[in-house]
Write a structure and sequence with these properties.
Strand content: 15-25%
Low-confidence stretches: none
Number of strands: 16
Distance between the termini: 76 Å
Strand order of the largest sheet: 5-9-8-12-6-7
Radius of gyration: 25 Å
Structural class: alpha/beta
Number of helices: 19
């Protein structure tokens, strides 16, 4: 019997920037690091590119990304490229020489809750990001929180995605392809050792289901500390069931490997590089597995389900109880936050549809999806204007501001804003920051005030006022950067700098000094003379 193990790591960090300055926020809870990206980098991302293990009496350094299936979120990869390019290079090399990397929708939203325009954009931007990072088209995609619906499946099929990995509890019923009788597996009893096919009106997609028991052992029971025992358990689960081949998929957060469990990257490396191969068990990617697999069973999925909410997708819109602390938590803020952001999303789409007429040579939403290339690589901005903007709008700040408006609106739906147990946490504050920035852009561009309606919905939760005040205090006047720049120049003689979204340089005009600033995302310019400072 042919045996295959696939371990998938979902590597992701939420956006941690101040949307007014573009700089990373400092997070005291991440001490001694300045923020959680940096701390988790040192505990997880770096160690997984150079995990030290002992094989045959010698020490080897293993890049785990050469062996695991993985996705890496755009906010994380973008940050790593800017701050730790040498580590990202190792991850990218693993992705380009194997089929291990899979795509991820861009803003990590709960796709079944997204409006049609957002859903289509999330998938399109995620595919663009993957293509530009790794130089090929993605065959598989990781869904944020594994949240899925029939509508999501149809959109994935429409975009050429062939494979998914989901949690076992998301299957509703199975049957042999071509048969009529369904077998109920809604209690989580689906046989995860086999591949399945989901049929929709526009085609089909093939699915693997993560083994819940092993995912729990790796995530919570530190089984990677004992890779030999873990391999024993894997062999026992695969068993002898009369099938010519079995597959054992296991999906977990990538941060498990070193951050949540210190040293787990070493156990992972030994398991995949030595322990499993020595037992004749193949380690491969989702795509490589499906190249040879014969899919004979069909699955019906639970609509609006996820891997981290037993109530489906209620965790991201109601006080369902998921994520509450032991002893209980007040989760009544989740619905007002969803309703407020939902109102913003609807108004943003309405405004965009009304105001974007005449801006583009393609449909406005096709232009939005084309803008994904600029999000991945800002040097593509001019190319985007040439391809999509009408003659009168080519190179205009108006188009850049319009795209910024959509970008920040969609980021305000980032799933981690609802994941935890309190509105007074960094994640909801970050979602609210993006929402406020989006509303400011609407007011600056068109004089449309959305903030009062937004806060009236949010304030249905009694504790919202304090959180909202803290978010509003993050507003950043770019002229403060100019003042900093002038002081730096007076002390060091350095004439130009890049801080967050802003390029800055000092220019001498006879006896006067001017600070010139340019926003690298919108091309907005600010010029301030010395006496104004």
């Amino acid at each position: 019997m042919k045996k295959t193990v696939i371990i998938h790591g979902h590597f992701y960090q939420p956006p941690r920037i101040n949307p007014w300055s573009g700089e990373m926020l400092r997070e005291a809870s991440a001490s001694p690091a300045l923020n959680w990206n940096e701390r988790i980098y040192n505990e997880c991302y770096l160690p997984n590119t150079e995990a030290e293990i002992k094989i045959g009496g010698s020490i080897e350094k293993v890049n785990n990304f050469n062996y695991i299936s993985f996705n890496i979120g755009p906010t994380l990869s973008g940050w790593m490229i800017r701050n730790h390019i040498e580590t990202y290079r190792k991850i990218r090399q693993a992705a380009t020489k194997t089929t291990n990397a899979i795509a991820l929708p861009y803003n990590h939203t709960i796709l079944p809750l997204d409006r049609e325009e957002n859903l289509k954009t999330q998938i399109a931007w995620g595919i663009t990001e993957y293509r530009m990072r790794f130089g090929k088209e993605p065959a598989a995609m990781w869904l944020p929180e594994c949240a899925v619906s029939s509508r999501v499946i149809r959109e994935l099929i429409e975009n050429g995605i062939k494979y998914l990995i989901l949690a076992s509890g998301q299957a509703r019923a199975v049957r042999d392809i071509g048969e009529s009788k369904w077998e109920d597996v809604s209690d989580g009893t689906i046989d995860v050792r086999r591949p399945y096919r989901v049929f929709e009106k526009n085609g089909y997609i093939d699915v693997l289901f993560s083994c819940k028991e092993l995912a729990g052992d790796i995530s919570f029971n530190r089984m990677l500390d004992k890779p030999s025992e873990l391999a024993d358990k894997m062999e026992k689960i695969m068993g002898e069931n009369g099938l010519p081949e079995v597959v054992l998929p296991v999906a977990t957060d990538g941060e498990t490997f070193g951050h949540h469990h210190k040293g787990a990257e070493k156990g992972l490396a030994y398991l995949l590089k030595s322990e499993l191969p020595s037992r004749g068990i193949r380690v491969c990617s989702i795509q490589d597995y499906f190249k040879e697999a014969q899919v004979k069973r069909q699955v019906m999925l639970k609509d609006n389900s996820s891997w981290s909410c037993s109530h489906g997708i209620e965790r991201w819109r109601s006080a369902c109880g998921c994520g509450a602390r032991e002893g209980g938590s007040d989760l009544e803020w989740r619905k007002p936050l969803r309703d407020a952001v939902g109102m913003l999303g609807e108004k943003a789409i309405e405004l965009f549809n009304e105001r974007a007429s005449g801006y583009f040579t393609v449909s406005p939403w096709d232009a939005v999806r084309e803008f994904g290339a600029v999000l991945v690589n800002n040097s593509k901005r001019e190319e985007f204007h040439e391809k999509c903007a009408s003659d009168s709008m080519k190179g205009s700040i108006e188009i850049d501001m319009l795209m910024e408006f959509i970008y920040f609106t969609f980021y305000s739906f980032t799933s981690c804003g609802w994941f935890f147990d309190s509105l007074d946490r960094p994640e909801p504050a970050q979602v609210l920051s993006f929402a406020l920035k989006s509303m400011e852009l609407a007011k600056d561009m068109w004089g449309v005030d959305l903030e009062s309606d937004f806060f009236s919905i949010l304030s249905k939760y009694p504790g919202a006022e304090k959180v909202w005040a803290n978010v509003k205090s993050r507003r950043f006047d770019p002229e403060d950067l100019a003042r900093d720049m002038l002081e730096i120049y007076s002390l060091t003689g350095i004439r130009k700098s890049l801080k967050g979204f802003w390029y800055m340089k000092v220019i001498h005009h006879d006896s006067e000094i001017m600070v010139e600033m340019k926003n690298r995302r919108t091309n907005e310019k600010i010029e301030i003379l010395q006496e104004e400072l």
